[in-house]
Structure formats: C-alpha cells, structure tokens
Amino acid sequence: MVVFALISAPVVIGLTYIPHVVKSQVLKKHNAHDNKKPRIDKPVNEDVDALVERCNGAHYNQLETLGPYTAGLAAAIAVGVPDDKLSRIAATYVTSRVVYNVAYLSPQVYEGTPRSLAFAGAMGSILWLWVATIIKARENNAPVIEYIKKGMSTESIACVHP
C-alpha cells in the first residue's frame, strides 16, 4: 500500500502554492495587486517588495522540483519500489519542501544556509527516488533497462518491443 507516497503528491502541489497565496495576501493588504494585470505588482516598500520577490522565488522553485518528484513517484510505484522506502523518500521530500518554504519566506534566513540545505534535501530525495526506481526496474528486468543497455538505438527498440 503506497498511501503515504500517493498522498505526498497533492501535499507538495499544495506546498507549491503557499508562497503564491502569501504573496497575494500581502499585496492585497497593501492595495498593490491589480487583478487586471496579475503579473505586474505595484511596488510598496523595500521590505514588502523583498517578501514578494522571495515568494515568487519559492513558488517558482517548488514548480521546478514538482515535475521530477511526481514523475519519479509514478515510476517508482509502477516498478514496485517497496512501500517503506517510498514512504521514507516521500517524507524526506515533503519535509525538505516545508523547511524550504519557511526558510525562503523568512527574511532572517533568506541569505543563510537553511534554505540551501532544504533544497539539497529535496533534490537528494528526488535522486534517491530515481535511483531506487532504476534499481527496482533492473531487478524486475524491465524492458526499458534492456533498451538502455543496447544503447537506445532504433534496432534496440525493435529487440525489446517487437
């Protein structure tokens, strides 16, 4: 049962939009958002503008890591990576992304290492996810492994998938 790993996907999608919601609320509070031109925010003051910039950065970075994580999760489930391993990887990724959001949006740690460490934890868990997937696919003798071994040529596709 891969319940926790599956639940992590909508959780990280939600985490992706938290910085965007924070930005929207801050701009709304300062009457600096025009919904007719949603990509152009009016400058407020140095602190608010810095927070808006950090919110944008956190949101965009979350979007950048979302694809590799969810694709890796789907691949891992498809090849049968054990549930306990998937749960540990998912927990690491989700925790790293929560810490990343907090660190990125907090001005006192904006230039510090917590944000970088959280990013490294998230990227490490994505790498761990893909390595576990490849190892399991190899154990299962999945056709894609044969395809890779044969050098990904057109002839190898015909050999693997007649």
As for the CATH topology, it is Four Helix Bundle (Hemerythrin (Met), subunit A)
Radius of gyration: 20 Å
Reading the helices and strands in chain order gives: HHHHHH
Strand content: under 5%
Task: Give the distance, in angstroms, between the N- and C-terminal Cα atoms.
Answer: 33 Å
SS elements, strand count: 0
Largest sheet: none
CATH superfamily: Membrane associated eicosanoid/glutathione metabolism-like domain
Question: Looking at the structure, what is the overall shape?
Answer: elongated
Poorly predicted tracts of residues: 156-162
Question: According to CATH, what is the class?
Answer: Mainly Alpha
SS class: mainly alpha
CATH architecture classification: Up-down Bundle
The number of domains is 1
What does this structure look like?
With 162 residues, the protein is an all-alpha fold. It has a single domain, classed as Four Helix Bundle (Hemerythrin (Met), subunit A) (Up-down Bundle). The protein has six helices and no strands. The longest helix is centred in the middle third of the chain and has 34 residues, at 46-79. It starts with a helix and ends with a helix.
